[in-house]
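In the previous lecture we treated proteins in isolation. Real proteins rarely work alone, and many bind small molecules. This record shows how such a complex is specified: first the sequence, then the SMILES for fe (ii) ion.
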Amino acid sequence: MTPMPATPTLRQQALALLLTTDTDAKARGTLALDLSQAVGADEVLAVLSGIPGRPALPLLVPHTELKTRSVRSREGHAALIHALAHIELNAIDLALDLSFRFEGMPEAFYRDWLKVAQEEALHFTLLRDHLRSLGFDYGNFPAHNALWEMAAKTSGDLLARIALVPRTLEARGLDASPPIKAKLLSIDDQRGAEILDVILRDEIGHVHVGNHWYRHLCEQAGRDPMSTYRELARRHGAPRPRGPFNLEARRAAGFSEEELIALNEPGDPPAA
Ligand SMILES: [Fe+2]
Ligand SMILES: [Fe+2]
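The predicted 3D structure, ligand included, written as tokens:
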């Protein structure tokens, strides 16, 4: 019999951080996780309400209600950095959720996603500090909840979660990075561009982790990765990939040539 660990397992700590509403405390706590501690891979943890813990602000509104502003104005510049910080906060929660929700995977699975959560916490912190240096803060602009909506839709199905969150939504971030960096450089935001470089480097790793575990799960279930992806994307209304694609980053993140070609297949998976 394995003795009960004296400290909470990593999966219990991931759940506690996921429920934390204070964003600075969430980021700090995630960065401080000691990944050498016991994982608790087989523990069945109760899914509580209040996931994810979020502050009162920013106000979450439908995607279509967000104003597009010119990055040339002070507010527009800050709104762009704010939108990126919001994505990173969601990314912390998504990685923590993957770490706590699905029991019975190999220990490496949990350590991989907790490492991802730590890098997301770093990304959030870099962007929030940059936003503060511009005279704003996280919560000053409205934001949307699209990333978490896909997490909610796939909360009962690990294979769908990995297919559609890291391998679809996070992978879109690889495509989005170069044009956003160019926008920041166009207003001489060198610090912002530097942060985007750090994020892109790490995000290739996150999508790589997603591809690794997606293939592992497909193999275990005896399923074909290509047709399984199409089926899951259709079932959950995943957004269609939109070019131009960052093929170099996608290749480095472990997508096969067949998968890269499939990005251009019209209507497959269908538009959300
Ligand atoms: Fe990130
Ligand atoms: Fe990420």
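Summary for your notes: Residues 57 and 169 are 23 Å apart (CA to CA). The mean pLDDT is 94.
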